[in-house]
């Protein structure tokens, strides 16, 4: 049962008079539930509560924090049926996809629980004193500590895994921060159900009131107030370039600077090298087509850009791509804005004289659906129009044809930062065209060999974050364990009494974590 | 022998017609050498060379990079006499201080050499494949890679350790980047001598032409061009808040966003707790006075702010502080701008009715010198004037007197981010006033117990970087081994052929570095 209210810590709140309903692409109509957009004063209340709560929360033991994260996963599991039904109605995504995404979300929470419990993520580092040195050397010990309150903007294309209890929230809570979520207006119902799960978990595990809040918004005002609130210590965002950059710029007007991590997507270039192309043109075409239309192309890692050298296999590749894309059944888009923007993106390409359509889905899209499309053009034409390297969010990809290796390098040189890059090549290809592969490494955050960029593993080695404009800071990832590093900073303690030090830095390594002592990794205690 | 020219890689260059001379506070006059400010075209040349050079340099083995860093240290040692003489003339700092700073600089280079040679700093992380999983799990491996070209602004207050071959240059080279230095106009001669040492080391160890360049500047134009150059990948700066923030803001106008790390100093609050005050008022006064006047207070970690609760020992503390400061002999200031700004800073305080001078140096300052000064005021007056919490760069400190613990907390609550915070307290004090100590931890980058903030150890555990406005990103340090993290970003390789992978990520752990495999630290090879 939804009530449409904001969650200011444990309190449901509807103080404002701005209300809205969620459009369902499945129904083609507004859903009945009325939601109350948060007011500036409700945001202030959430921040005040969060500030108090975080000071208590950060002192909770690792076990307590881990049990909170696991309890969130359990509460989501308990409510999975309702959450998935609501998300399906609000997003138009299939139940199958949402069931997978739900599992990904709870697994992610459990992974962070494990990381918190193990404890080494704080990067404890100890340089012991040397009183005998000419100028006596002090004892210095440092570790990561939480930043405070993290404002999380939820993503429309992952209503679960990159939203209310998604990777940003999980990593912010894992590193000891309070979280205030700005819910996406197109999945306000899903958000409320997941927020309830988080709050129930907080109650059951004795977490302080205010450690998590969720605010509804229908226009930009609450998001802007969140980014500029003086007591917010970090922001994370997943979404469009325009949205992410606007929030980033707004944050520069604050009195203080805070970390603003925005993941803004990219075109995820795929380079197909000659030997592989000659060997497997049909397989490549099929693999790529499936990745392009997956989830109607609404992934930040969608392969929207393919580069190939003219040669054997190209005709087969194109023919098979054409066949596969034409056969694709149009799918529902997440919401009307995305559907409209997709159409406008295609129009931009079609308006360019040297762009040729290779294929469009044969089936006519129904209401709120979009069909896949692929186009191609010569490298020399592409290079002249940098605007053609901008993302078209949806099931579209552009194939750029090059005369030779130099032209491939020139095309890659013209691209900006990417979340992922992909090379399709035999071992021979990789050796022969190492300059191309190296260039792909240099412009992206993750370099994939003979696979597709869609599907982002949640683990220790994942890096989901590339140079700008893929993100606002390519040194951080928003997926995987290291996502915690966005929301923590080192503090060094010099000559602190052992009694005052946090457990991770005390002489006795009671948690048995890995620490760097005098530059050497060790689990020993200090004697 | 100086020639006053820029260094565009191995080439001395003087294409511009803007020239300048360096003012010597020792001589009270301009030094004879003419320096040529770099032109925009000289900057472009340096960047073009750096881009080529970095692509070669990053492929050099760890041993080669380490030998380059050690060779720089050796070349500096070979020229130490001349470097120190020139630096003394240009900065007014004593030969003793500069000899120490020179050793700090070469030790720093050698420490980074050791870190590069050992190799684990790249944070190699491997999540092996699991082909048996329902959706087969790919092999993902990530490590830190260099950003490209780092633009380094040298600091006037450390002509060696935070300048041409200082921590920024050393950490940027260690992590595989090319460096372009914008020399400080007040130590252009020292810069040239050190640049020569770096370039000689590069030649001797076979490093590519362009891996290091040094540009002279007399106005802001070259610095601005460096920050906005499209091929510059990161900026580091140590200096004033105004300068750092201006460069940071300028960087936001770039087409792409890049890391801009600026260390902008702070007032480094010291809280003196009651039991310690009662026990050791004289010792505390002496310790603090020495730290306040060290190097004429021209350190970013100068203790410019002291907080105390009224009670036993306070009168003795103030009396002894007065005595010590009055006895201090005025010292040369680095350059006239700093001397003038110091005077203006004192004027600002003196103009405030509730500010009382406790002591000023009795000896009249000679030309280009400044004398130390200490003032005090009541907490309730201080809290009303946030402008009084701004740094006065030089030998000044403000003592704020509080009625009770709550007032101390209120004062601390009003402060912005700090590089360091210090608590003077017995173990009992630390327990009794834990809220105060925790608050000091929360606003700074390094929390010192019963010591002084001046003196920043170069090691593994050092954190020299606090929340804004101490720096533009408190998650990074500009001193110590972890300074490399500012100039590197992770790249993940998915299902890469072992042959293509960098040595750090290959199956065989031939460098015997620490790697995280499936979340576990290990030195094992992958089988």
Report on this model:
Two copies of one chain form a homodimer. Helix content of chain A is 37%, strand content 20%. Chain A is of the alpha/beta class. In chain A, strand 10 (178-182), helix 6 (188-204) and strand 11 (212-215) form a beta-alpha-beta unit. In chain A, helix 7 crosses helix 8 (241-251) and helix 14 runs parallel beside helix 16. The model of chain A has no long low-confidence stretch (mean pLDDT 97). At the A-B interface, strand 7, strand 8, helix 15, helix 16 and strand 22 of A face strand 7, strand 8, helix 15, helix 16 and strand 22 of B.
Defining traits:
homodimer; 16 helices; 527 residues; alpha/beta; 25 strands; five-stranded mixed β-sheet; seven-stranded mixed β-sheet
Give the SSE map.
The structure is a homodimer of 527-residue chains.
Chain A lengths: L5 E3 L2 E3 L5 E2 L2 E2 L4 E2 L4 E2 L3 H18 L4 H17 L1 H12 L3 H24 L6 E3 L12 E7 L2 E5 L13 H8 L3 E5 L5 H17 L7 E4 L5 H8 L5 E5 L2 H11 L8 E4 L5 E4 L1 H6 L1 H13 L11 E5 L4 H14 L3 E2 L3 H15 L5 E5 L8 E2 L2 E6 H6 L11 E7 L2 H9 L4 E7 L2 H6 L1 H10 E6 L38 E7 L20 E3 L2 E3 L5
Parallel strand pairs in A: 7-24, 9-10, 9-12, 10-11, 12-13, 14-15, 14-21, 15-20, 19-20, 21-22
Antiparallel strand pairs in A: 1-2, 3-6, 4-5, 7-8, 8-23, 16-18, 17-19, 24-25
Helix pairs in contact in A: 2-4, 2-6, 3-4, 3-6, 4-5, 7-8, 10-11, 14-16
């Amino acid at each position: 049962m939804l009530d449409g209210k904001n969650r200011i810590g444990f309190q449901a709140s509807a103080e404002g008079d701005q209300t809205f309903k969620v459009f369902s692409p499945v129904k083609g109509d507004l859903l009945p539930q009325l939601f109350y957009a948060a007011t500036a004063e409700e945001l202030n209340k959430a921040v005040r509560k969060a500030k108090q709560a975080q000071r208590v929360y950060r002192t909770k033991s690792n076990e307590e924090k881990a049990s909170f994260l696991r309890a969130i996963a359990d509460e989501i599991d308990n409510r999975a049926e309702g959450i998935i039904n609501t998300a399906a109605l609000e997003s138009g995504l299939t139940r199958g996809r949402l069931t997978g995404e739900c599992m990904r979300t709870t697994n992610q929470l459990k992974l962070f629980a494990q990381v918190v419990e193990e404890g080494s993520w704080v990067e404890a580092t100890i340089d012991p004193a040397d009183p005998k040195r000419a100028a006596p050397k002090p004892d210095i010990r440092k570790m990561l500590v939480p930043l405070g309150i993290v404002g999380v903007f939820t993503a429309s294309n992952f209503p679960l895994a990159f939203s209310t209890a998604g990777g940003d929230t999980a990593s912010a809570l894992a590193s000891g921060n309070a979280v205030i979520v700005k819910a996406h207006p197109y999945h306000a119902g899903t958000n409320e159900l997941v927020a309830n799960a988080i709050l129930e978990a907080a109650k059951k595990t004795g977490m302080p009131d205010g450690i998590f809040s969720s605010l509804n918004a229908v226009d930009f005002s609450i998001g802007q107030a969140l980014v500029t609130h003086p007591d917010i210590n970090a922001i994370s965002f997943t979404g469009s370039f325009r949205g992410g950059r606007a929030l980033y710029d707004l944050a520069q007007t604050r009195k203080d600077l805070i970390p603003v991590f925005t993941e803004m997507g990219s075109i995820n270039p795929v380079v197909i090298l000659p030997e592989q192309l000659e060997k497997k043109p049909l397989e490549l075409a099929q693999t790529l087509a499936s990745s392009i239309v997956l989830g109607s192309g609404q992934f930040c890692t969608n392969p929207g850009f393919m580069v190939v050298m003219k040669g054997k296999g190209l005709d087969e590749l194109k023919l098979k791509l054409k066949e596969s894309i034409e056969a694709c059944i149009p799918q529902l888009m997440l919401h009307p804005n995305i559907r409209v923007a997709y159409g406008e993106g295609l129009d931009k390409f079609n308006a360019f004289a040297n762009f040729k359509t290779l294929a469009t889905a044969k089936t006519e899209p129904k209401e709120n659906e979009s069909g896949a499309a692929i186009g191609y053009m010569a490298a020399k034409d592409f290079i002249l129009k940098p605007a053609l390297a901008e993302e078209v969010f949806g099931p579209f990809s552009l194939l750029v044809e090059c005369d030779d290796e130099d032209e491939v390098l020139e095309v890659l040189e013209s691209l900006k930062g990417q979340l992922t890059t992909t090379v399709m090549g035999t071992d021979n290809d990789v050796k022969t065209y190492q300059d191309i592969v190296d260039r792909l490494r240099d412009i992206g955050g993750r370099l994939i060999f003979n696979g597709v960029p869609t599907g982002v593993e949640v683990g220790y080695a994942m890096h989901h974050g590339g140079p700008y404009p893929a993100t606002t800071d390519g040194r951080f990832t928003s997926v995987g364990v290291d996502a915690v590093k966005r929301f923590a900073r080192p503090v060094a303690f010099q000559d602190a009494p052992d009694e005052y030090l946090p457990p991770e830095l005390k002489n006795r390594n009671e948690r048995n974590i890995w620490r760097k002592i005098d530059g050497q990794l060790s689990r020993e205690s200090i004697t």
